[in-house]
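Session log. Operator J.P. requested a structure for one protein chain; no other inputs attached. Running the standard single-chain path with token output.
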Amino acid sequence: MVRILTLLSLGLFFFGFLSAQTFAQPYSIASGLVPIAPGVTITVVREVSLTSSPNYCSAIPHPPECDAPSATGPYLGALPESPIGVDAAGSAYRLTLLGNSYSLGDGDGTYLQRTRRDGVTENVASLYRQRCLDPPACSVGAYYSRATPFFMDVTNGGILMIASADIRSKPYDLPIDYRVGILEISGLPQMFDTLLTFVPTGQLLAILTPAHPDGFRSVDSMQLWAGDVRTLPDWSQAQPLACTAATNPDPGQLVSITDALPDPAVGEGRYYVVASQSGTQRRLGREYVNGAFSARDPTTLPVCQ
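Structure written below.
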């Protein structure tokens, strides 16, 4: 008996630019970057005080954070007009108000924005140029700079940036500390969508729910379908196995489903695919065609009932 399992909603790619770790510091490069969009977090990958470790950048080759621009130079580096990139769900990221600054309440700077495929633009994070670090007294402040371009990590749903922070006392503007490092913005849609596995004993299927199923922030339900591999990519011939495989699943939730279908005959094969439903929208993962990823068209997939 031959059984073929095709994981059509799985983008199984693992790549890391740098391993991240949390960092606790009263005055840090992280204070110049504040998340706005739900689910977005800021992590310090690494950070060092050049005031305390003046020889840190003397090595050849030196760490990339040593290329952080001086706080007296452009706070968005030399290429502020270059786009940042496109995430796994097709949203484009950019910086706003280039060459100027918005008031951010306790300082000024600009926003990291994304424009979704439906045309809606939203602020993802605030990028400070300068900020008061001890309001309301403001006896300590910081000037921030970032090297451009930023690095888009489509696989893991993040953006990496080289940053510096010049910490100074106010109002006399005396230097306190100068810090450089690498920041990571996490919580963006990941290329890894839904992990679908098959265990022959007992014919058990398992779905591992990611943080952003098929690029949605959350889903109302997940659907499981099956079909003959010879009919691909005609989704109209798929048959539903579970229309509500998971209801409002949490990230990391493991959903088990019993497959009651008989084994395919010798020489035959069956595929399984997971569809994500959020409101009136349904997504069927992504496909890789001609060297590029795009959303898989779910319109021919029948209504699950």
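Operator note: Residues 29-186 form one domain.
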